[in-house]
Amino acid sequence: MKQRGPGGDRPLTRRSGGEGAVRRPESGPAKPKIDKAGANDQALDSIIAADKREALKLAPVSHETEARLDRYIALLREWQAKTNLVAPSTLPQLWTRHIADSLQLVDLAPAAKRWADLGSGGGFPGVVLACAMAGTPGASVHLVERIAKKAAFLREAVRVTTSPGVVHLAEIGDNVDRITGPVDCVTARALAPLHQLIGFAEPLMRQGAKALFLKGQDVEAELTEAAKYWNIQPQLHKSRTGDGWIVELMSIERRG
Fold first, then answer.
1. Model pTM greater than 0.90?
2. Could you tell me which of 179, 50, 198 has the C-alpha nearest to residue 126?
3. Where are the domains of the chain?
């Protein structure tokens, strides 16, 4: 039978500290909170810094170009949180997989000043080329991108790097109407199969541009397919940064 206290219905309770009282464990000093996000960011910073050192061995640049690329990478990491500009798995290799991969094109067209990058996306290779071309008189890099969010990022990247980039928000096939003046070299990376890329680049190439297309390991299969539609004499360059290839085309001609 429950005993009632003076108040009526409330059961009697034992005074704290009395015999039989339940003791609560004493709380120890508060443990510091660990900012996991901050720790992860610091770890990624360290990894990217090491990757940058390796990338600049593969593709050395001037201090001025390096500073521009630093600003570009900082902006890309900021925007990456809200807009998918690169595959998240490649963030630790931003410099080797993306920056150095793009920079190697400069050595394949050392005299080129006017570039057109089709489907620029997160800015590879277009923004990287614009950073490299910034000190060259008369240089310009046309960045053609059909997705508005990515085009907005490209405009901001051109601004913060003070590089000679011109962004065109347009379907890739409409690039000829957007690009004025001659183009020395047209590029594309991870955009479309080779036979389609050649079709996109055809108007610019007929005006004298040569093409440098960054492709993966299956380049031979893409060349075989492209040969069904185009008469081409490709020159292949092994990528310095992985298992991919760069397809160089000086001229093209439609079959049939």
1. no
2. 179
3. 40-254
Q: Which amino acid, residue 238?
A: K
> Which among 167, 162, 127, 128 is positioned nearest to 147, based on CA atoms?
167
List the beta bridge partners of residue 212: 187, 248
Characterise 219 by phi-psi region: left (phi > 0), alpha (psi -120 to 50), beta (else). alpha
Region at 208 (left for phi over 0; alpha for psi -120 to 50; beta for the rest): left
In 79-189, which ranges are E strands?
114-118, 140-145, 165-169, 185-189
Six-digit token pair at 127?
Answer: 């923004």
Q: Phi then psi for 78, rounded to 5 degrees?
A: -65, -45
Residue type, 109: A
- Contact between 127 and 157 under an 8 Å Cβ cutoff? The reply is yes
Q: 110 near 103, Cβ under 8 Å?
A: no
How does pLDDT run across 223-235, given as a tens digit for each residue?
999 999 999 999 9
Distance CA 94, CA 45 (A): 11
Residue 95: Cβ-neighbour burial (10 angstroms; 0-12, 13-18, 19+): buried
CATH of 40-254, one of 3.40.50.150, 3.30.470.20, 3.40.47.10, 3.30.390.30: 3.40.50.150
When pLDDT is averaged across residues 171-177 and rounded to a whole number, the result is 75
Beta-carbon-side half-sphere exposure of residue 63 (alpha carbons within 13 Å): 0
Kindly report, residue by residue over 58-77, the tens digit of the pLDDT: 999 999 999 999 999 999 99
